[in-house]
Amino acid sequence: MAVTAAGESRVPGAGTPDCREDSRPLIRSVLERIGDKWSVSVVCQLGESTYRFNELRRLVNPITQRMLSVTLRALERDGLVSRTVHPTMPPRVDYALTGRGLSLLDVLRDLAGWADAHAEEIGSSRAEFDAQAQ
């Protein structure tokens, strides 16, 4: 049984996948995808509404057109984002979160809540560390 820094006991591997670097490659690649700067921003924006490409690009500023395309394609490949092409002239394409994407949004909101709850402590730790490094 492991003990956390907060003094809580924890049973290794009890109900949660391993997040070490030597974990299964698919898990590692999923964590890399959802942890990248642009994926988080896109998922959070799509959590508010369905958007067209250029609307999304304005909201996720300063993302480039190419990077948004790459990010959307990767999120679509992972089943987190759906792409709907409407048969209009010119064609209209909408992007939205899938059910899986919505479940990820819940996790990202929890993570943002954790960051908010600990922001002051982390800021203090950074200032202390930086002062010692000088």
Could you give a quick summary of the protein structure above?
By secondary structure, this protein is of the alpha+beta class. It has helices at 25-35, 37-46, 53-59, 65-77, 99-133; strands spanning 2-3, 9-10, 51-52, 81-86, 92-97. The strands form 2 sheets. The protein has a 3-stranded antiparallel beta sheet with strand order 3-5-4. A two-stranded antiparallel ribbon has the order 1-2.
Structure, described:
With 134 residues, this protein is α+β, with helices and mostly antiparallel strands. The chain has helices at residues 25-35, 37-46, 53-59, 65-77, 99-133, and strands at residues 2-3, 9-10, 51-52, 81-86, 92-97. It has a single domain, classed as Arc Repressor Mutant, subunit A (Orthogonal Bundle), CATH 1.10.10. Helix content is 57%, strand content 13%. The strands form two sheets. Strands 3-5-4 form a three-stranded antiparallel beta sheet. A two-stranded antiparallel ribbon has the order 1-2. The longest helix has 35 residues, at 99-133. This is Helix-turn-helix domain-containing protein. Residues 19-123 form the HTH hxlR-type domain.
- Low-pLDDT runs of 5+ residues are none
Average pLDDT, rounded to a whole number, is 88
**Helical run tally:** 5
Count the E strands: 5
What count of domains describes the coordinates?
Answer: 1
The secondary structure category is: alpha+beta
Radius of gyration: 19 Å
Q: Give the SSE string.
A: EEHHEHHEEH
Beta-strand portion reads 5-15%
Q: Name the strands of the widest sheet in spatial order.
A: 3-5-4
Q: What's the N-to-C terminus distance?
A: 38 Å
CATH topology name, in short, is Arc Repressor Mutant, subunit A
CATH structural architecture: Orthogonal Bundle
| CATH H-level homologous superfamily name | Winged helix-like DNA-binding domain superfamily/Winged helix DNA-binding domain
Region (Disordered): 1-22
Protein name: Helix-turn-helix domain-containing protein
Pfam family, one: HxlR
Organism: Streptomyces siamensis
